Amino acid sequence: MADKIKMTPKGYDKLVNDLEHRKTVKRSEISDYMGTAIADGDLRESAAYDEARLMQSENEAQIADLEYQLGLAEIVELGIGTAVAGLGAKVELEDGNGRKHAFEIVGTYEVDVYKGEHKKVSDQSPIGLALKDHKIGDVVKVTSPKGNLLEYTIMSVKYD
Predict the structure, then answer these.
(1) CB 142 within 8 Å of CB 126
(2) Which range of residues forms the domain containing residue 57?
(3) Number of folded domains in the chain?
(4) Is residue 80 part of a domain?
(5) Which residue of 86, 108, 144, 155 has the fewest C-beta atoms within 10 A of its own C-beta?
(6) Can you spell out the DSSP letters for 42-94?
(7) pLDDT of residue 79
(8) Confidence of residue 68 (pLDDT cuts 50, 70, 90)
């Protein structure tokens, strides 16, 4: 049996919404597109029909993946009211050069380091593991993917 996938409530809701969108809206759009391609005639030479089948296959694979993730999901209670970093925490750090860094600790399937004010990092990533169970004022050490040892001071820990 596969291990449970830890998620924040927000991450779980996002997966549920994505699944619902793919099952309803996306399937309907692909079906309409496929119907138009079929109506155009000879399917053996129809690039549009081939594209529609590929889109359908990709969508169904995504649906299966989302259902798998949701089936293994374990929604973790956020540490609201605590000042200790954990899953769901928004943590602001300062490095040795005085530069500020902001992270949100999320489950592995919720990671997105490009969106938002706080980069979403996995609780299983080096920074996520280093921050776990630490509080404001603590200095954490993280080994970067390049092998550099980085030190950060935790400036704030917040939960939505």
Answers:
(1) yes
(2) 5-75
(3) 2
(4) no
(5) 144
(6) -GGG-HHHHHHHHHHHHHHHHHHHHHHHHHHEEEPPP-TT--B--TTEEEEEE
(7) 67
(8) very high
CATH code assigned at 15: 1.10.287.180
Dist CA 103 CA 128 (whole Å): 9
Q: Which of 132, 134, 106 is nearest to 118 (CA)?
A: 106
Examine the domain organization and report whether 98 and 132 are in the same domain. Answer: yes
Same-domain check for residues 155 and 97: yes
Please name the amino acid found at residue 64.
Answer: A
Q: What is the pLDDT of residues 25-50, one digit of tens each?
A: 999 999 998 888 888 776 677 788 88
Predicted TM-score of the model (pTM): 0.71
pLDDT at 81 over 80: no
Three-class DSSP category at 30: helix
Report CA Rg, the chain.
21
Burial of 88: CB neighbours in 10 Å, binned 0-12, 13-18, 19+? buried
The DSSP element (H or E) to which 28 belongs, if any, is: helix 27-39
